[in-house]
Design brief:
alpha/beta, GMP Synthetase, Chain A, domain 3, four-stranded parallel beta sheet
């Protein structure tokens, strides 16, 4: 069973969003009623706003054994049209009164009214573990978004491995403000607590006061992205009481992008808690995580989860760096209707190529230095990880945020360019260049430092390096 607590529901809290809350008994009745109306469909789309209605629609699809396509409500018209055409959903689930764009509004529609209290009924027998549960679309940075098919067994295996790493139980109440069309907020942040038999409090938006109230009210775990923690650090510095309140949580967890060393230190200073990071992709779910029973190491994403294998294929002249390849029960089943792309993502011996570059620390933890396509800089005959330079720059007190890219250079092939958000008054560029040269090898120093007001980020907090002009 993917969500066993819904088969024997109680009056314990299950989901709470700004538009409402339900117990397990209420959620089971809603999901069973809606599931009966979508049973037998090939796929259903859910207009995945961060609402109780959307979460209920997703749960209904999972319990009915119907693959769910969570749709980003902020998707542009071209992207949305592609997703609908590629996934072919037979119906779209949405909250009553929601206006849907033309690209998806032409589908048959079922409203998810969470104020209904239907007569409880049982669920049909669940499909086997290999059956698809979700089709989650990737960001599409190298072309149109691809639909990653995630099986029911992959979701269960990954969430159980995370439960082991984080000592996650039904007694935990998770809180976050993540979107629910993506693996982080949907699989981990919504399906995760339901699989454990615990509860979710979705905040809708996040700030120090709101998070403090959630933890004071019983939240034990917090999920966030680096942008959240960066803003929370400022809130807690201005409101020490809020920081102390959040410090009563059991775990603070960050993902979807790297959290800077500066923000790690700010959060720990104001809350007393060290943030734990984890690592994964849409296609792989979560692969590594800092464990609850170990002190996290800043700059790393923890150890491989139970039953997960991670290997680093050495990069020539990479100074100990390697391409991250993985295998385990949580890997996706393939890209929807793209067999060639699916085959290209795997090695001959069955490992998935993540496209990331990393290294092992002396303590056996994985440290990532960036994406092979954008963060492996070839300069002067060396292959250099952008993340290593970024981490070095973040050790300088005058650097708040940084992104490093390779820019075309007639002499070096690529020269290292650092885009820096200063913490206060900007220092002379040479000071930062010399700082890196002293910490790392001289060939890893930036050849150019550009100061910017902010770095371009997507909704998950990841820096969009393609928007930085070389």
């Amino acid at each position: 069973m993917l969500l066993p607590a819904l088969h024997s529901p109680t009056d314990a809290p299950a989901l709470e969003f700004p538009d409402g809350a339900v117990t397990y008994r209420e959620l089971a009745a809603l999901a069973a009623d809606l599931g009966a109306r979508i049973a037998g469909r090939t796929r259903v789309a859910v207009w995945a706003q961060p609402t109780l209605a959307a979460a209920t629609g997703i749960v209904a699809g999972l319990m009915a054994g119907v693959p769910v396509v969570p749709v980003n409500p902020k998707a542009g018209s071209k992207e949305l049209a592609h997703i609908v055409a590629n996934s072919g959903p037979e119906v779209v689930l949405a909250a009553p009164g929601t206006d849907l764009p033309a690209e998806i509004g032409g589908l048959p529609r079922l409203d998810v009214d969470v104020t209904d209290r239907p007569v409880p009924q049982g669920f049909p027998a669940e499909p086997d573990d290999a059956a698809p549960a979700l089709v989650v679309y990737t960001s599409g940075t190298t072309g149109p978004p691809k639909g990653a098919v995630l099986s029911r067994g992959a979701l269960a295996a990954d969430l159980d491995a995370l439960a082991d790493a984080w000592a996650w139980t039904g007694a935990d109440r998770l809180t976050h403000a993540l979107p629910i069309f993506h693996v982080h907020g949907l699989v981990l942040g919504t399906i995760g607590p339901l699989r454990r038999g615990g509860s979710l409090l979705h905040l809708g938006g996040i700030d120090g006061a709101r998070l403090a109230a959630a933890v004071t009210g019983g939240a034990t775990m917090v999920f966030g992205v680096p942008t959240h923690y960066h803003r929370l650090a400022a809130d807690f510095e201005a409101d020490a009481e809020a920081g102390r309140a959040v410090g009563q949580a059991r775990l603070l967890i960050s993902g979807s992008a790297a959290l800077t060393a500066v923000d790690h230190a700010r959060i720990e200073k104001t809350t007393g808690l060290a943030v734990r990071e984890r690592y994964g992709l849409t296609e792989t779910l979560i692969l590594t995580a800092a464990r609850a029973d170990e002190e996290p190491e800043v700059g790393t994403v923890g150890r491989p989860l139970a039953n997960t294998e991670v290997r680093l294929v050495p990069v020539p002249d990479g100074d100990g760096l390697g391409s991250v390849e993985v295998r385990g029960p949580q890997l996706f089943s393939g890209y929807l209707d793209l067999p060639e792309a699916t085959a290209a993502a795997a090695t001959a011996d069955g490992w998935f190529r993540t496209g990331d570059i990393g290294r092992w620390t002396e303590s056996g933890l994985l440290a990532l230095v960036g994406r092979q396509a954008t963060d492996l800089i070839k300069s002067g005959g060396y292959k250099i990880g952008a993340g290593e330079i970024e981490n070095a720059l973040l050790e300088h007190a005058a650097v708040a945020e940084v992104a490093v890219i390779g820019a075309p250079d007639e002499d070096l092939g690529e020269r290292i360019v650092a885009f820096v958000v200063a913490a206060g008054e900007a220092p002379e560029p040479k000071e930062l260049i010399d700082h890196v040269a002293a910490l790392l090898s001289p060939h890893k120093r930036p050849r150019e430092v550009r100061f910017v007001e902010s770095l371009p980020r997507n909704a998950m907090g990841k820096v969009q390096k393609k928007l930085l002009s070389p």
